[in-house]
Design a protein that fits this description.
- The radius of gyration is 11 Å and the shape is flat.
- 9% of the residues are buried.
- The N and C termini lie far apart (34 Å).
- It has one domain.
- The chain is of the alpha+beta class.
- The protein has a three-stranded mixed beta sheet with strand order 1-2-3.
- It is built from two helices and three strands, in the order αβαββ.
Length: 68
């Protein structure tokens, strides 16, 4: 199972309240950062996949690590 398929499965298993995951190379674009910030304000959780490292981060109410 590839990484994107695993993430989709995880998102589905997480149930309601999750937005579609965002897939990025190494850093989200300004548009994606705006979307993540808006979703976090509304309490919507979202997975961010980093294709270059096969890692992911869960966007919640906190500031993302690249926002500093």
């Amino acid at each position: 199972m590839n990484l994107e398929t695993r993430i989709r499965a995880l998102e589905t298993a997480a149930g309601n309240g999750w937005a579609e995951p965002i897939f990025v190379e190494s850093r989200p674009t300004p548009e994606q950062i705006s979307e993540l910030a808006e979703n976090a304000k509304r309490g919507i959780r979202q997975l961010i996949f980093f294709r270059d490292t096969d890692s992911c981060w869960i966007n919640t109410a906190g500031a993302p690590p690249w926002a500093a």
